[in-house]
């Protein structure tokens, strides 16, 4: 999208089948059945070369359960806040970890006079996917394998394993 020619109202972006397949592969999940974002854009009042976008990201994905590895469907409905910043405006160390408050914008750099809304939506989806999501059979699998039992801790926990019945 051109930074100088922003739309006057909300814009809906939808990923096509090839894009969803590529993103599912990129994010190491079985599939993305639906991905769309409705965003509004306006110039950032604080910086001449920055654009803010906000709206909603909606997706239907299939993930693998972190416990059973079985696939299960997940619906995502997230508010999105993105600030596209001209590369020369970014003022942070790339190795520095940055914590954002819920009302702050994720920042994405752009060069020239265009910014990549599709990549911004993809990155927002990546942040919305729970890497440790548990499917409907996770509790039963935990119970069956004994993962739901508390683990003994403390100075004598290792000695308890040596105790004869």
UniProtKB/TrEMBL annotation:
It comes from the Bacteria. This is DUF177 domain-containing protein.
């Amino acid at each position: 999208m051109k930074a100088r020619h922003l739309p006057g109202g909300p814009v809906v972006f939808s990923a096509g089948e090839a894009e969803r397949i590529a993103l599912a592969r990129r994010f190491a999940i079985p599939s993305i059945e639906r991905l769309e974002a409705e965003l509004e854009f306006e110039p950032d009042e604080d910086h001449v070369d920055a654009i803010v976008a906000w709206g909603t990201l909606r997706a239907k994905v299939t993930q693998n359960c972190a416990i059973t590895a079985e696939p299960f469907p997940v619906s995502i409905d997230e508010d999105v806040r993105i600030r596209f910043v001209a590369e020369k405006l970014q003022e942070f160390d790339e190795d520095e970890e940055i914590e954002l408050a819920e009302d702050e914008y994720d920042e994405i750099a752009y060069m020239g006079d265009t910014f990549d809304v599709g990549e911004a939506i993809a990155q927002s989806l990546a942040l919305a996917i729970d890497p440790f999501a548990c499917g409907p059979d996770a509790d039963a699998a935990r119970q069956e394998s004994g993962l739901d039992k508390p683990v003994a801790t403390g100075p004598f926990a290792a000695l308890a394993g040596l105790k004869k019945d």
